[in-house]
Write a structure and sequence with these properties.
Layout lengths: L3 H18 L4 H16 L9 H5 L6 H13 L3 H8 L16 H11 L4 H9 L11 H16 L5 E2 H16 L6 E4 L1 H4 L4 E2 L2 E6 L4 H8 L4 E7 L3 E6 L4 E7 L4 H9 L2 H13 L2 E4 L2 E4 L5 E3 L3 H7 L15 H6 L14 E2 L13 H10 L4 E7 L10 H14 L7 E9 L10 H4 L4 E5 L8 H13 L5 E2 L17 H11 L2 E5 L9 H8 L5 E4 L11 H10 L13 H8 L7
Parallel strand pairs: 4-7, 11-12, 12-13, 13-14, 14-15, 15-16, 16-17
Antiparallel strand pairs: 1-3, 2-4, 5-6, 6-7, 8-9, 9-10
The chain binds 2'-deoxyguanosine-5'-triphosphate (DGT), calcium ion (2 copies) and zinc ion.
């Protein structure tokens, strides 16, 4: 049972908020916030770490490490307890609104009793703020703007799927230009982050001009922001910025390492260089004193000279990958070609767009060894699913089984988890399926306790093998449900229920940090496309990228397993299917 990381994370975050609200040092508040995130995303259980190991956590210095140790030993931290008693808890949500400082938040609470964003919106619309000292129409406008920014969640960033499409097009166009020795995308896209601020493209070539000109003239390009010899930036017709850098071929490795980032990871690698009396830059690894070049042409070589194995880009987030690399304990990451099949897909029998036959042949075209069809059960609108319809589908599935290069078909369903955790077919009917995925599709605003109970009950259902899109978030559109996911992860581990990593670029659910947390409980995962059309099957890559960011290996992911082993897992140790 590993709740320690999450407990410490929320404690440190709370302290950061308390410091901000009480008008404390902003720098100090930020330091606690960074430490909170670092602990939450850290791969090891903090309660098992000694004082020295605690300080190895990124962004955790001595003073924070001492507080964590105090908390782990006594269950509380004296300084934080003192600060807490001085400020009401409900005010905390308000200060997360951009443009609303801690002081104003305190006034809103004290004068109008406002302690949530919704209450604040109501008060603004009822024009209650105007009578307050220091507030006016302008303040109202600013606050509304701040709330809309906050609700956009990630303002200005675009989903990885959209960015990838453009980046691959640009890379393929530039690769065809004579003189191009190498070309790839770097930055957050290479690290497979779920949203992308801008696309960074790198070219290795002796002459940069032809590439800079080509980029400015591409069909996607709406506006040239900056045009230079080393770097050109454009804005695409969809408003996305693309930075192109042309590197001398001999400094390819150094440039690729530098522009892949993350910034936090690069700071770490440069620190290591300094410790070795070296200097690392986008041009290469040099002797600090003499300035003599040591190596620059491959990333592998640069990492090797720093005493590190090559670190896969999805791990380069300063979440402990450097320490793990130095110890030779980097995970052997899941790869896309480890995936033997997709366990959550739809057809036009419910809300999918393509008929069963098309989905199956597209899946076979991807080289899968097995493939599950999991159309919705009766509670989800659409074609009013019935037992007759799904049984008729099962017949067709059995006929298609092994017809494509021996690919095995699993007949499943995606159940709806109702408000009380019940699902929409009885056990004796579920027994006939090879696989049941169960997901939440409505009633997102139940209490935390009810939502938790609901998901835990679904895990406890002997026929439910996978929880689909566990938080139900839609990136930039809808936040995840507020359940106690540690309790859910624990239930998954206890009952042998896998958690889905839904690969749809708008979902990516679970996200990387939740995966890291769930893995500590010993949970297994299923990376699924949730395809509603043949063109969605390739979304698998984004799910795999997210799994990699969560440090997952092949063993952690049930749809990399051979079919016999997978079937055993799907039966949850029972006699069933
Ligand atoms: P994004 O574009 O916001 O999704 O995230 P990134 O990581 O692609 O960031 P970006 O485009 O600003 O820069 C690309 C990489 O270049 C970044 O991951 C690390 C490197 N880089 C950029 N600026 C700096 C810097 O000031 N210091 C260091 N160490 N690295 C930088
Ligand atoms: Ca970028
Ligand atoms: Ca950039
Ligand atoms: Zn689905």
């Amino acid at each position: 049972m590993v709740r320690a990381n999450e407990e410490v994370e929320s404690l440190l975050q709370e302290y950061a908020d308390l410091i901000a609200i009480s008008g404390g040092d902003a720098f100090k508040a930020r330091a606690y916030e960074k430490a909170a995130r670092a602990v939450g995303g850290y791969h090891a259980d903090v309660s098992k770490l000694d004082a020295k190991a605690l300080r190895d956590i990124p962004s955790v210095g001595k003073s924070i490490a001492d507080k964590i140790a105090e908390y782990l030993q006594s269950g509380q931290v004296a300084t934080i307890e003192e600060t807490r008693t001085s400020i009401p808890a409900g005010v905390r949500e308000l200060i997360t609104i951009p443009m609303l400082g801690p002081k104003k938040a305190m006034v809103l609470y004290e004068e109008l009793g406002i302690s949530s964003v919704d209450q604040l919106l109501d008060a603004i619309h009822a024009e209650k703020l105007r009578d307050l000292k220091g507030f006016g129409e302008k303040t109202e406008e600013n606050i509304l703007h701040g709330i809309s920014l906050m609700q956009k969640a990630g303002g200005g960033r675009i989903l990885i799927g959209a960015a990838m499409d453009i980046a691959e097009q640009i890379v393929s166009d530039l690769s065809r230009i004579p003189g191009c020795e190498r070309c790839t995308y770097a930055g957050s896209l290479r690290r497979m982050r779920e949203t992308i601020g801008d696309i960074d493209v790198l070219v290795a070539a002796e002459r940069s001009a032809p590439f800079m000109e080509a980029l400015s003239g591409l069909p996607h390009t709406a506006e040239v922001i900056a045009h230079g010899e080393k770097k050109t930036s454009i804005r695409t017709t969809k408003g996305l910025q693309v930075d192109l850098r042309v590197l001398p071929p001999e400094s390819w490795g150094a440039g690729l390492q530098y522009f892949t980032g993350s910034k936090a990871h690069n700071i770490r690698t440069r620190e290591i260089a300094v410790r070795h009396k070296l200097k690392l830059s986008e041009y290469g690894l040099f002797h600090a004193k003499s300035g003599k070049l040591i190596t620059s042409d491959t990333e592998e070589d640069i990492y090797a000279r720093l005493g590190l194995p090559w670190i896969p880009p999805p791990l380069r987030e300063d979440r402990g990958e450097i320490a793990a690399g130095l110890r030779g304990e980097l995970p052997d990451l899941l790869a896309e070609n480890d995936i033997r099949g997709d366990l959550h897909t739809h057809t036009d029998l419910t809300d999918g767009l393509a008929p069963l036959e098309d989905m199956v042949s597209a899946a076979a075209g991807r080289g899968y060894a097995y493939y599950a069809i999991t159309d919705h059960a009766p509670n989800l609108y659409m074609q009013r699913m019935t037992e007759e319809k799904i049984l008729a589908q099962r017949e067709r599935v059995r006929e298609l089984d092994r017809k494509h290069h021996g690919m095995r078909l699993l007949h499943g369903t995606e159940l709806n988890i109702g408000p009380d955790g019940e699902v929409d077919w009885p056990g004796d009917f579920l027994e006939g399926f090879d696989l049941c995925v169960a997901s939440v599709h409505s009633h997102f605003n139940q209490s935390r306790q009810a939502l938790t109970r609901r998901l835990v009950r679904a895990c406890e259902n002997p026929y439910v093998a996978v929880i689909g899109h566990p938080t139900t978030r839609r990136i930039g559109k809808r936040p995840g449900i507020d359940a106690d996911f540690d309790a859910v992860f624990e239930a998954c581990a206890r009952t042998g229920t896998a958690l889905e990593i839904n690969a749809h670029p708008e979902r990516l659910d679970l996200c990387d940090e939740d995966i890291l947390r769930a893995k500590r409980y010993g949970v297994k995962f299923a990376v699924n496309s949730d395809a509603h059309s043949t063109t969605h099957l390739p979304y698998m890559r984004y799910g795999v990228g997210t799994a990699q960011r969560g440090w997952l290996t092949k063993d952690d992911v049930i749809n990399t397993w051979p079919l016999t082993k997978l079937r055993r897992f799907l039966r949850k140790g029972g006699a069933g299917a």
